[in-house]
Amino acid sequence: MSTAGRPDFSGGVAELGVAGRPIPGEIDSGDMHVVASYQSGLLCAVIDGLGHGPEAAVAARRAAGLLSDAPGRPVRELVEQCHAALRSTRGAVMTLAAIDAASDRLTWTGVGNVEAVLWRATPDAVPAREAIVSRAGVVGYQLPALREVTLSIASGDVLAIATDGINHDFILESPLQMSAQDYANSVLDRYGEESDDALVLVARFLGRSP
Question: Three-class SS of residue 170?
Fold first, then answer.
């Protein structure tokens, strides 16, 4: 199951926002997101099919379907499964983040230039934000050695994942004083580039489910 923009999803685990659009002149976008619940948490993923247009959308849609069907598996395994499933497509880059509400932890991994940043809600947190270090490669074509990183998370922390149609400078704009959807809309409006599809997914962690 995928969803977007629901303020109370998966037992109140996260407040969600998403904003995206295809490259001007196209109908299909190769940028897609997945938000899917599993027993102890939530999988958030952003997929960017290579290039743009219908063929990019085919690759992204195939990966999104696979991730939605098995969100509780380790993120490394999910990327490996996508790699096998996308061999007959033009491929994709992606970042996956699993929010474990039972242990207050986030585990993420990425292949290619889908950026992710975790903003800390605690005012004196050091660092105030943490960014994913993705490995170069293409899922479905050339898969690098995958690296999972697990971070502690706290209520109010905000995760943002964006495709390369969003200018890198979006990480300079704090989401902490905005709703998840307002922040997603602001990032797309201010940092979306006209030369590519663009999408940003935002999830504010609300703490453990009751």
Answer: helix
Per-residue pLDDT of 184-200, as tens digits, reads 999 999 999 999 999 99
The model's confidence at residue 5, banded by pLDDT at 50, 70 and 90, is very low
Q: What are 11-28's pLDDT values in tens digits?
A: 467 899 999 999 998 899
1 belongs to a structural domain: no
Query: Which helix (DSSP H) or strand (DSSP E) does residue 42 occupy?
Result: strand 41-49
Asked if residue 8 is part of any domain, the answer here is no
CB-based burial, 61-73: b 16+ in 10 Å, e otherwise: bbbbebbbeebee
Residue 77 covered by a domain: yes
Let me know: does 2 contact 167? Beta carbons within 8 Å: no
Q: Helix 54-69 and helix 75-85: axis angle, to 10°?
A: 140
Q: How far apart are CA 191 and CA 187, in angstroms?
A: 5
Q: Is residue 97 situated within a structural domain?
A: yes
Cα separation, 158 vs 173, in Å, equals 12
In degrees to the nearest 10, what's the CA dihedral of 74, 76, 79, 80?
-110
CA-CA distances (angstroms) from residue 143 to 44, 94, 112, 167?
20, 11, 10, 25
Per the structure, the complete domain to which residue 68 belongs is given by: 14-205
Report the amino acid identity of residue 180. A
Asked if 43 and 67 count as a contact pair (C-beta separation under 8 A), the reply is yes
Q: Is 6 exposed, middle or buried (0-12, 13-18, 19+ CB in 10 A)?
A: middle
